[in-house]
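User: Fold this, then the next.

Assistant: Folding the first:
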Amino acid sequence: MFVNKGNIIKSIIHFSPREVLEECKNGALMVDLRRENEYLYKQFDVPNVVYSRPEYVREHYEDIPKDIPVIIADNAGLRSREIVEFLVGKGFTNVANLVGGMFEWDRDGLPLKVNNNEMLSGSCLCVMRKKSIN
C-alpha cells in the first residue's frame, strides 16, 4: 500500500522513477499508457507491467485490480496524472503517478528493455517514424 509514500499533490500520489522501481519490485502493477510505437523501442523492465491506452482504461477501469498497488506511467507523466485523477475519482485508493514517465526513468538509468529495431526518429512525437538502421 502507498501509505506515507511519494509526494501527495491535490490528493494524487506521485512517485519518482526510483520509488516506482522499488514499488514494482515489491509487487506493484505498472500500467504503461504509451502508444505501441512508443513502447516497442523502450519498455520499463519491471516484473508486472501491462500496456493500455488511456481511453481503454477509462472504459474498462473495473478490470484494474484494487487489491494491489497500481502505478500509472507514460512518456512524461502528464497523461498518467490525468488517468490517476480519473481512477481516484472512481474510488481507487492505491494508485500513483510516475513523475517524468519514461523520459525520467531512462535519464535515471533505470532498467529498460530496448529493441533498437523499433527506434524512432523525428523532431517531435507527431512526426516520429521508425529509424532506418543501416
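Now the next one, as you asked:
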Amino acid sequence: MDIRVLSKRENELELRIAGETHSLMNLLKVELLNDEQIDVATYDIKHTTIGDPVLFVRTVSDRDPIDAVIEASKRIDALCEDFKEAFERVEPPGDEG
C-alpha cells in the first residue's frame, strides 16, 4: 500500500492512498467520524477504475490529524481481530445429507 501525504497543516491532512477502493476508504472515514475530535473526514475517488482515493481529515483544536488516522486504523484492526475470533468459533452447519 502506497500512502502519500499531499498536504498537512496544523489540523488538516490530505492523503493519497494508491490502489485502494471504497471498501477501505469508507471504513476509515466512518471510524474517523466516530472520534469527537474529528470535524471532517471524507474521501474522493475522481475516477472509479483508475483513480486513487484521496482522504481529507480536519480535526478540532490542536489534535494532530495524523495521530487521528493512526488511532482510527488501530480501532479498525481491533474490530477485525474481534470479528476473526468470533468467526473462528462459529460451528459449521450439520451434515443434513
